[in-house]
Amino acid sequence: MEPVLTQFGDRMSQLTGVRAIMKDIIETLRAGKGQDFINLSAGNPVILPEVEQLWRDCTTELLESSEYGEVVCRYGSSQGYRPLIDAVLNDFNQRYGLNLSDRNILITPGSQSLYFFAANALGGYTSKGTLKQIVLPLSPDYTGYGGVTLFPESLVAYRPKLDIDEASHRFKYRPDFSQLQIDENTGFVLFSRPCNPTGNVLSDEEVNRIAALAAPQNVPIFVDSAYASPYPALNFTEMSPIMGENIVHCMSLSKAGLPGERLGIALGDESIIQTLEAFQTNLCIHSSRYGQAIAARAIASGSLAHISESIIRPHYQSKFTVLEQTLDEAMPDVPWFLHRGEGAIFAWLWLRDLPISDWEFYQELKQVGVIVVPGQSFFPGLRDDWDHTRQCCRISLTATPEELTEGMRRLARVVEAVYARSPVMA
Ligand SMILES: Cc1ncc(COP(=O)(O)O)c(C=O)c1O
To answer: Closest ligand 1 atom, CA of 113?
Structure first.
């Protein structure tokens, strides 16, 4: 049977960005049975024993408590499970000297759903027919933003400026404020900090500048903090959450070991929180209460913040060090640039003047048993034809140090061969 799909049905039944490539990767891994691929494409976090133990302990406590039936056998409030709301508010108010109340918080089933609510409540067509844009101020950014809106024409991303250090083969993206437009047509602004895929962390000054541009227009800024402190604390440079009247601070517990339980948290202005909450009630009522109950325990006891800093962060940071040292040793004399590793669980490599496309480069790497993600899928909303989008790849830090070392050595050999076939003009 082939039912006729609506515009929305058609839009939502398509795989966008990296999910489309994942299909090719899964097929490659399946077809290559026996061949040992070094898979550097994964976005799924590593199961770290200490983190798993924390969730086991919280589950045991929950099972033994009288709260259990109330948690799993009953519906709850759409806003979230009260002990989790209290734990997050207490933690943030104490840690950062804030004055947040229960009107400023919403628990969602994962943070992806939060962006879906925002994209369709604040982006798209108003009742007067004007198109409200979802502005991504710095492209590349999280590929999942490509699929959240029912009106793809509302998604607008801006090309960044590049800070390049030729000698050390490092670079960093920065917002290009001479281009960035936030005006009456902007519905909201969205970016990840730390960023998936690049590991970039926008500076406090950059975030404040974006927020200041948006404030006079009453435009909210959603800061996707899926990798930020205090949990999972996957920032390798100093940073703290920036709160403000028009800032919605969005968190996820996925990289803190709970991706399966689907837990996102939004902190922000009461009126925005209410809009998002109503959207959630209509869509799915509320997030899993089991996940919320164990998260409440881990946050209230301080264990989650502690494990994030002492276990999760060093795990990925040391992998980044292995990766960059191997590239420094193994890469040939071509214009390669690694994005500064400021956080998240990925490394981002730019091969300037790459003689083939990122997709072809991905195919060549497969031939030597290495799988990365071609960069093109990480520029949702960018309309410019920019050759840079075809010169990058994302490398996951979820592999073992040995796999990362071997993977980067093989990658360096492929890079050498590709540039030798078609030498770059100096
Ligand atoms: C930057 C970023 N934002 C949001 C998400 C979605 O996370 P979740 O829906 O699991 O909270 C991810 C997942 O990888 C991500 O990398």
So the answer is: 9
How far apart are the C-alpha atoms of 200 and 235, rounded to whole Å? 9
Split at pLDDT 50, 70, 90, the class of 426 is very low
Ligand 1 centroid – CA 111 distance (Å):
6
314 three-class SS: helix
Mutate to test the pocket of ligand 1, among 254, 292, 373 (most ligand atoms within 8 A of CB): 254
Domain ranges, ordered by start, for the chain: 7-47+311-420, 50-306
Residue type, 124: G
Substitution site in 142, 251, 342, 398 for ligand 1 pocket (most atoms within 8 Å of beta carbon):
142
Q: Average pLDDT, stretch 161-166?
A: 98
The β-bridge partners of 190 are 222
Q: Per-residue pLDDT tens for 23-76?
A: 888 888 888 765 789 999 988 999 999 999 999 999 999 999 999 999 999 999
| Closest-lying ligand 1 atom to the alpha carbon of residue 253 | 11
| CATH code for residues 50-306 | 3.40.640.10
- Polymer length in residues for the chain: 426
Residues near ligand 1 with C-beta < 6 Å?
Answer: 43, 110-112, 142, 144, 192, 196, 224, 226, 252, 254, 259, 264
**Matching CATH number, 7-47+311-420, of 3.40.630.10, 3.60.21.70, 3.90.1150.10, 3.90.1100.10:** 3.90.1150.10
User: How far apart are the C-alpha atoms of 137 and 215, rounded to whole Å?
Assistant: 15
Q: Are 244 and 292 in contact, with CB atoms under 8 Å apart?
A: no
Percent of the chain with pLDDT over 70: 98
At 350-392, the pLDDT tens digits run 999 999 999 999 999 999 999 999 999 999 999 999 999 999 9
